Structure formats: C-alpha cells, structure tokens
Amino acid sequence: MAADRPLRSDARRNRDRVLRAAQEVFGESGFDVPLDEIATRAGVGAGTVYRHFPTKEALFQAVVADRVAGLIADAQRRATEADPGVAFFDFLARLGAEGAAKRDTSDAIAVPGPLRDELHDALAVLLQRAQHAGAVRADITAADLVALFKGLLDVAHEADDPGRAGRVLALVIDGLRLPRL
Which of 1, 145, 166, 178 has the fewest CB neighbours in a 10 Å radius? Predict the structure, then answer.
C-alpha cells in the first residue's frame, strides 16, 4: 500500500478497531500480550493486524505514542521550572500515576523506539538539573531511573494491592534524595 494513498473506509475501520483493541489489551496486560489476542479482540484476523502494523513494536508505538508524547512534553516543560528538584520529583510522581493506571507504561519507557529515546533524553535533563541543584544523588543515571521505574511499575501490577505503587514510589523517591546531614 502506498504511504500517501488514503485507506479505504473498511481498511480504516479495521485499523481503528485494531488500535482500540490494542490500547485495551496493552493497557491491561502490557507489551507481552500476543498479537493474536489483539486480533481476536478487534474481530479481525492476524493478517489484518500485520497489514497495518508490520511488527508488534510498531503497533505498540502507535498505541502509546500520544501518552508518551504527553510525558515528553511534560518533562520538557518541567525542565524550565525554577526549582529543579520539585520539577524532577513531580514528574516522577506523574510517571508513577500513569504506570499505576496503565500496565503498558512500564513497557512504553523500555521498548525500543524513537519515543522511548526522546523520553529518556527528557528525563535525563530533569535528572541532571535536579542533581546540579543538590536535590538528587549524583550517582544516579537516567538509565538507572528507567530500570527503577520499569521494575516499580511492573511490581505495582503484580498484586491486588492498590497502595503498593504509592508505597514503592515513596521508597524510590526517598532513595533518590540527597541524604540530609
């Protein structure tokens, strides 16, 4: 199919059904869900899914693109705030809230792709500003944060304890702060 040619109305409907189903399934189960499950939920065959999205990563990126773009824009906006520590920790709180609400957030920050890289870069800026302001330990990297949050968000969905994500996030935040003398 030519990239500049618009989709037929039935193909557009199928693509939209796949996206809606993928949004639901990824939100419930994360990236590891089989594409066949998405196709079944959308009421289409696996071939239809692959016609619109050649890889699971491409489908996942299409589903999380708006949310990740929103996180990136928020991080970039916060990078201009007067108090780098508050900006950093407020962004982490938002990331934790997003992850508690949607299971695929932990994958959105880890599955390779240009949006993930842009999010990591925006997070690195927030982290470096907070470190230079003395609000965050100097021995933490953006990659460390991503690993911490991937684990935190995964753990938050393992149990039927709605308070777990908040408690674990509080522990992570306390561990990131510079020790008080």
Answer: 1
15 CB-near residues (< 8 Å, 6+ apart): 7, 52
Cα 93 to Cα 39, 136, 169, distances in angstroms: 34, 15, 8
Q: Which amino acid is at 145?
A: L
* Domains of the chain as residue ranges with CATH: 1-54 (1.10.10.60), 64-176 (1.10.357.10)
Q: Could you report the per-residue pLDDT of 133-144, keeping only the tens digit for each?
A: 999 999 999 999
DSSP secondary-structure letter at 74?
H
Give the amino acid at 74. D
Q: Give the pLDDT of residue 176.
A: 94
Q: Please report where in the chains the tokens 């935190």 appear, as a residue.
A: 152
What is the phi/psi pair of residue 81, to 5°?
Answer: -70, 155
Residue type, 70: G
